[in-house]
Every structure is written in C-alpha cells, then in structure tokens.
Amino acid sequence: MSQPVVKITNLNLKYQHKPVLQDLNWTIKGDEHWLLCGESGSGKTSLAKAISGLTHSYGNIEITFNQERELPPLVYYVANWFQFKDLEGQSNFYYQQRYNKQSAETTATVKTELESFGKKHALPIDALDTILAALGFSEQKDATLIQLSSGEHKKLQLVKSLWLKPQLLILDLPYNGLDSTSRRNLNTLLEEIAKAGTQLILISNETEVPDCINRFAMIKEGQLVEIAGHERNLKGTKSVNRPVPAFLTDAVSLRPSGEIIKMIDVTISYGEKKVLKNINWEVNAGEKWVLHGHNGSGKSTLLSLICGDHPQAYANNFHLFGNKRGSGESIWEIKERIGLISPELHWYFDPSATVWQSVVSGFYDSSGLFCDPGYSKKSQTDELISYFGLDEYKNTLMNELPLGKQRLALLARTIIKNPEILILDEPCQGLDQQQTEHFNRLVDDLCKNGTTLIYVGHFDAQIPSCIEKRILLENGEVKSIETDIYTN
After folding, report:
1. Is the whole-model pTM more than 0.90?
2. Between the CA of residue 78 and those of 58, 75, 137, 140, 204, what are the distances in Å?
C-alpha cells in the first residue's frame, strides 16, 4: 500500500478571527492526485497555503518526500494571482500603468523572469521551449511583466511550475483566464508531470481536469469531505433569487440610441509589434456582444480603447458615444458612462478600502472613496450590498476577504451607477456556480432595460443568456463577426 505523502491531523485555521478550518484531517497517499472544489470562501485556498507553509495554522501537517526521486523535494504553490515587482522593487502599480511606455522600461521581461527562476532551481533550459509552445506563450518572451494580461500572467506561473516539476504541486484556480486550447494543453502537461512523479492538488470548480485526478473533495463547515467524481458537478446551496434593486431599473427611456462604438482600421503598435491590426467594429446601443479570442489575441487592448485608458486611441479613427476620440471629451466623461470589471482592475484596486467604500466608489470611477457621497448614493450602496449578500462584510477591508467575495464587491461597484455600457472582462473569476448564476441573472435583467454589453469569457457556461452577437479576435485581427447567436 502506498505510504502517506501528506498527513494532516486536527488542523485549525482562523481568518480575521473567524474559524475557517476546524479539526480538519486529510491523508494524501503517494498514488493520489486530488481535486479540491466547492463553494467560494469555504477555505480551499487557506488549506492550500497551510500545506505550503504560507500561512499560520494550528494542528499537525506532516509531509514526507521521496528522497530517491530526482524531482525537487518541495511543495510548490501557484496562487490564483501573481504579485510582481519592477526593477526598482516597487509593486504598487496602477490600472493604466501597463500602457505606459516608461513603466514597461522599468519592468523585467518574461525571458528575464524565467532565466532567474531557472537559475535559482538549476533547471534544464532545453525543457522550457516545449512548455512555452504548448501553452501558446512562446511569443511573449520579450514582453514585460506589466504588459501581460491576466491570462498571460497565469500562463507564466504555470510555465514555472511545469518546468520545476516539484514532488507536490498545488494549483489554485489554474484555469482562470486561460482560453480553451490552453486549458486542454495544460491538462496534457499536468498528466505528463504526474506520470513523472509529481503529485497534484488542484483547486477548481471546472469540469475539465486531467485524467490523472483520482480523488475529489470539498470543504464543508471547516471539514474536508471526500466525494465521488460526479458529485463535484452537483449544485450545493441553492442561491437566493433576490429582486433587482429598483434604482437599477429606473429611467429606461433615457437610454441613448444609435451608435456607441465605431472603429475604422484601428491599429495599435508597440514598436515593431502590432497588437491590433486594422480593426473595424461597430456597436449600437442596447446590443449584447461577447468578445472571444485566445490569450494574447488583443482583447484587453481593445477594451482599453473603449474605456479611455489607452493613449493610442487619439491616433486612430475611433468614435465613442458619437464623438471622435480627441475631440475634447475627458477620460472621466467617458468613464462615467461605462461600468467596467476586469482581472487587471481587481489586481490594482485599493486593497485597504472597505467593501462599502469599494462599492460606492463606482459612482466616481475611483479606487477607494475620497468624498461624502450623500444620502441617496449611500442608500443605493446599502441596497446593492444586500443584493449581493455582503451585509456582514460591508465594513471589512477588501484584502481581508476571500477572492470570491472581493469579486462580488467589485461587481457591485461596476453596476452601481447603472451605466449605459457594461464591459465585463472575465467577471466571474473566483465565483462559485451559485454566485455566477446570481450575477448572470442580474446582467440579463439589466440588459432588458437597454444596457449595452460587451462580455469577455473563456467559459461558455459562464456567459449570460442575453448575448446575441460575437466578435472573434485572432492575432490582433478580427477573425469573424456573428450576429443573432444564442450562446445558451
């Protein structure tokens, strides 16, 4: 019988003085690869960090490595997010900084980051190219870290872990931000390192996992509960179907009509590299679009033009809300008509703001609150926080919340001003199935009232049912435009 590699006994862990894990026991044997799934905020990430020695806990965690194997005898944890520093040791970046040429010049490249990692762990350089190619990341070696999208940052961390091949690898939400081809290739690579001796613990609610996964569990009331493989797809706690706050359904007749976005041969370049090439696209008021494309296809850059964040908008034939960019409107006049959520905005958002401050800041398009919003806005903020089930966390700092609840607070921030256009870039990252369904029902209801929608998502199951049109980018070009589609 295979000997235990990980043996956890009576593990207890508190998060912000609240019990998360309570007398948890878990034994992982040498021939087991686990999937840890379940509700957002149940303690999955806390357990992974405890095993990795990254957070303090009470109880006993014994890890026994096989000293006869050539694989590194260590636990390697890949977090959902990667926090990096520039060449001056700074990490307090702001959202628009990735489009700043000077910032790019003071940030390490992907190649430099990988060379440093390989040197630290004495890894063979000849094994790297195969991994980069499989994840579609070969062309990004000269890109700086600040220029990478969320999916590309995820790929960089996965490349490191697959190259390292530790004896125990823990991946937290490894599929977030990855396109479908990258997800399939990642599973193939994980199966290969599992055959070579790496044991896997994946934290994910996705259905497509490597064939080597042979154990399944979730955390319920602080305890680890083993389940059958098919049970991970079953719904847990029934979501509460609350009525949409009335202030979000008011003034439907005031929605504008006509053209919202018009791009004519729009091209964005960084030196010799063209990120967008001759983009032609029109969006009319009330239309519901999904924006598809592989990682690095140009989706984030396209959205940055619409949101007023990209300086090269002025050098292109680009109209927004009926006005050509550069005709006198300010970036704040543009933003007050747009509601935006993206992984990058979440990265750079003020973590020291409370949930209440974060939600109400959506009225001002700020990261945090810097003024008294007045009675009406305060009331609407309270109403929306209740709608998302965040009442007990309203005075909690954002950085003290689990990822899923942080994302719910930022989703509330996105819609609080009932904007004319919603730009939702991977909005359901970190949410469990019930939270995703709850949010998508809200999006569907808002779009019935004339809201224009641009939705980016790599998982078809997470896309709202109201979607009717699709634009597909490939290598910075429009591959296709489809109308009258029905995703769900």
Report:
1. no
2. 23, 10, 18, 20, 13
> Where do the domains of the chain lie, and which CATH numbers do they carry?
4-233 (3.40.50.300), 246-483 (3.40.50.300)
Tens of pLDDT, residues 54-75: 988 899 999 999 988 889 999 9
Give a three-class secondary structure readout of the chain: CCCEEEEEEEEEEEECCEEEEEEEEEEEECCCCEEEECCCCCCHHHHHHHHCCCCCCEEEEEECCCCCCCCCCCEEEECCCCCCCCCCCCCCCCHHHHHCHHHHHCCCEHHHHHHHHHHHHCCCHHHHHHHHHHCCCHHHCCCEHHHCCHHHHHHHHHHHHHHHCCCEEEEECCCCCCCHHHHHHHHHHHHHHHHCCCEEEEECCCCCCCCCCCEEEEEECCEEEEECHHHHHCCCCCCCCCCCCHHHCCCHHHCCCCEEEEEEEEEEEECCEEEEEEEEEEEECCCEEEEEECCCCCHHHHHHHHCCCCHHHHHCEEEECCEECCCCCCHHHHHCCEEEECHHHHHHCCCCCEHHHHHHHHHCCCCCCCCCCCHHHHHHHHHHHHHCCCHHHCCCEHHHCCHHHHHHHHHHHHHCCCCCEEEEECCCCCCCHHHHHHHHHHHHHHHCCCCEEEEECCCHHHCCCCCCEEEEEECCEEEEEEECCCCC
Burial 242-281 (b: 16+ CB within 10 A, else e): eebbebbeeeeeeebeeebbbbeebbbeeeeeebbbebeb
Relative orientation angle of helices 180-195 and 150-164, to the nearest 10 degrees = 10
Q: Which two tokens stand for residue 72?
A: 């590194």
Tens of pLDDT along 362-409? 998 887 777 888 999 999 999 999 999 999 999 999 988 888 888 899
Q: In the block, which residue shows the tokens 């989706």?
A: 299
Contact yes or no for 38/157 (Cβ under 8 A): no
Residue type, 231: E
Distances (CA, A) of 390 to 317, 394, 407, 466: 43, 6, 11, 26
